[in-house]
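Recall the central idea of this unit: under ordinary conditions, the amino acid sequence of a chain determines the structure it adopts. In this exercise we apply that idea directly, starting from the sequence alone.
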Amino acid sequence: MVTLWRQQLELAAGARRLGAGTAAGNPLPAVELSVVDVSFEAIADRELREYFQNLPTSFALGDEAVDRLRAAAAQPVRESPAFQRFVASLSHDD
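Accordingly, the structure predicted from this sequence is:
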């Protein structure tokens, strides 16, 4: 999926350059795509992982389940090397 998105971005950037007459020396900024795994398998705490894996698959969850799900979703995102690279790239002055 990421490869497809990259190809679409490249095509769109090329079309904008052609349509807008953007000079080759002034290219559009590069876009980097990353994938971050936020699946239940990425939750390090076994008990918490099993709790989420056993939640019913419905659109109606209790407040406690929603709160726990939101809190647990942050852990695999924060620990993802791809996300850490993304955050680090935001602090660099280019």
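The helical segments are 2-20, 46-53, 63-79, 81-90.
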